Amino acid sequence: MTSGAKHLVNDPSNLVIESLRGLARLNPKIRLDEAQRVIYLPASDRVSLLSGGGSGHEPAHAGFVGPGLLDAAVCGNIFASPNVAQIRRGIDLVTGDKGLLIVVMNYTGDALHFGLAAEQYRSKGGKGDVRVLMVGDDVAVGREQGSIVGRRGLAGTILVYKIASAASDRGDDLDQVENVAKYVHARIGTLGIGLEHCHVPGTKGGESHLGASQYELGMGIHNEPGTSKHDLSSVSELVASMLSKITDTTDKDRSFVPFRNDGTDEVVLYINNLGSISELELGGIANEAIQWLSKKGIKVRRAISGTFMTSLNMPGFSLTLMLLPGPNEPFTSAQILELLDAPASAPGWKWTASEPGTLETQDKQPASTTVADNASLAPADSQIFLDAITRACRSVIEAGPELTKQDQIAGDGDAGLTLEAGAKGILKAIETGNIDGKNVIRDIGTIAEVVEEDMGGTSGALYSIFFSGLGKGLRDAAKSGSKSTTSEIWSEAAQEALSILYKYTRARPPSRTLVDPLQAFIQALPELGLSKAADKAHTAADKTRELVAKAGRGAYVNQEDLKKRDVPDPGAWGVWRIVDGLRGYQGKP
C-alpha cells in the first residue's frame, strides 16, 4: 500500500470546508464564504489579486490570502478545479474600480473555469476590468509534448502573485501589475520530484508506484506520473540533476528560462516541500542547491525554503529558479527584489531574508583533550590497543542495521546511526593520528570528545561521561607511578568510570538500558578477563528482552507489546557489540 494512506478526518467529503473553517478561525483578517468556498479579505482600494484551484495544495492558495498577497482564493474539491459559480463569487467579492488580476496555475480545468468566470464578469459590466494570467513554470515536459496545453503550473505561481501583489500595494495600475507578473512568469522554471505518490483521503490505498530506492522526476502535483524514474543516490546528485535541467539552454525543447550561463546570472532560489519532507532534509537540499549554483557562477540573491504548495502528503520537493533581470531589461534586479521583499502577512508566507545568506565557517579542529598535568600512561602494546579500538568500531558499524531495526521497535529508530557516527568519528581520529596509541590518557580523552560531538543526544553524553571517567581513572594510575597499563589498571579505571556515570543517570541493572551489559562487563573484568567478561555482557544484553524498561525512551513504550516483540534493548546490544569487538569478534554477532 502507498505510504501515507492514514488521515485525520471526520468525513473526507467535508474535509475541504472544515479546513477552510479552521483557517478562518485562526486568521481574524480573513472572511469565508462557505457556500462557494471562497477565502477573502474585505475589499481594498488597490488592484486585487485572486487565485485558486483544487484543494490539497495547502497552504496554496487559501493560506496566502492576507495583506501583501492575495485578496481571495477560490477552493475546489481535492485536485479539482472550482466551478464557475464559485469563481464568479470570488470575483464579485474583491473586484473594485482598479480591477482584478487572476493568477492561476495552467491546468485545463482551471483555464476553462477561471477564464469563463472572467469573461462572464466582463460581459455583465463589473466595477473594474478583470485579467487572467495562467502560470506554467514546469520544465519537465518539453515544448513538443506540451505543444497544445503548455507548461503546467507549479510552485512558481506563488512567486508571481507575491510580486504582483507588492506592485499593487505600491499603487501600480492593472496594466503595470499585469506586466510585472507576466515578466517574472517568463523567467521562472520549476522541477519537482517525488519519492512516492500521495494519497487522497477517502480513497482506497493503492500499491506503491516506486521501488524502495527510486524517485520520479517531473512528478505533477495531482499524482500525475513524472517523466522518468531513477535510482535514488545522494541529495547532492539529485539537486545537481534538477538544477541542470532548469538552467540548461542547449536543449531547445526544454529550455524555457533565458539563462546566459556566463557568470552574470542572478536568481531567486525557491525550495518547496511537496508535503512530507522534513525540515531537516529541506535544509540539506537548500545547502546543496546554493552550493551548486555558486559553483556554476549563478549568484543566489534570495533563497526561500518551506512548505508553500503541496500535493497533500507527497514525499517530495520542487526547486524553482526565478532569473533576475540582466542588462537592457524593462525591470532591474533591484526593482524585482524590492517587490519580493515587500512585507506580507498571510499564514502560508514564510519569513525570508532580504539579502543573500552567508556561511562563515572555520576549519574543524581535531578533537583533543588538554591534560593540564601532562599525565602520560602508555598501553602495554600500542598496536594491540589501536587494533582493539578499531575492531570495536567496526563491530558497531556492522551492527548498525540490526540496532536500527531493534530501535524502530523499542525507541525512536536512530540507535544504529548514532553509534555508527561515533564509531566512524573514532576511526577517523585514528586515521589522522589524533589517536595514536602512545598515551592512553590522551587517547581516551579524545574518544570522549569525539563521541560527544559526533553522536550527540543522550547516548553521546552517556558514552562521553563514561570515557571521561575512564580517562580520569587512568590519570590516577599515572599519578600513582604507573608507566604503562595493566589489566588491573584497566579494570580499576573502568570501575571508576561506571561510578562517575552513575552520578548522572538513575538507571541501574536490571533496567533494560545500556548499563545492564556495561555493569556486567565491568564487574566480571577483574576475575574473568576480557573475553569472558564480554560473554557476561552478552548475557545481560540478551536478557533485556525480558525486562521492563525503567529508564530511557523504552520506559514510554507499551511494555507488554515490547516483551511480545522479543527484542533486546538496542543501547544494551550496542554495548555488547563494542566489548565483543574489543576482544576480537569471539561472540555471536
From TrEMBL:
Residues that hold substrate according to the record: G54, S55, G56, H57, D110
Pfam families on file: Dak1 (PF02733), Dak2 (PF02734)
GO biological process: anaerobic glycerol catabolic process
The protein's annotated pathway: Polyol metabolism; glycerol fermentation; glycerone phosphate from glycerol (oxidative route): step 2/2
Domain DhaK: 11-349
Catalysed reaction, written as an equation: dihydroxyacetone + ATP = dihydroxyacetone phosphate + ADP + H(+); D-glyceraldehyde + ATP = D-glyceraldehyde 3-phosphate + ADP + H(+)
Keyword S-adenosyl-L-methionine: no
PROSITE patterns: DHAK (PS51481), DHAL (PS51480)
Gene3D superfamilies noted in UniProt: 1.25.40.340, Dihydroxyacetone kinase, domain 1 (3.40.50.10440), Dihydroxyacetone kinase, domain 2 (3.30.1180.20)
GO terms assigned for molecular function: ATP binding; glycerone kinase activity; triokinase activity
Superkingdom, taxonomy of origin: Eukaryota
Stretches assigned to the DhaL domain: 383-584
Alphabetically ordered keywords of this record: ATP-binding, Glycerol metabolism, Kinase, Nucleotide-binding, Transferase
A cellular-component GO term for this protein: cytosol
Residues the record marks as active site: H222
Keyword ATP-binding: yes
Similarity section: Belongs to the dihydroxyacetone kinase (DAK) family.
Function of the molecule: Catalyzes both the phosphorylation of dihydroxyacetone and of glyceraldehyde.
Protein name: Putative dihydroxyacetone kinase 1
Organism for this UniProt entry: Kockovaella imperatae
Lineage, top ranks: Eukaryota, Fungi, Dikarya, Basidiomycota, Agaricomycotina
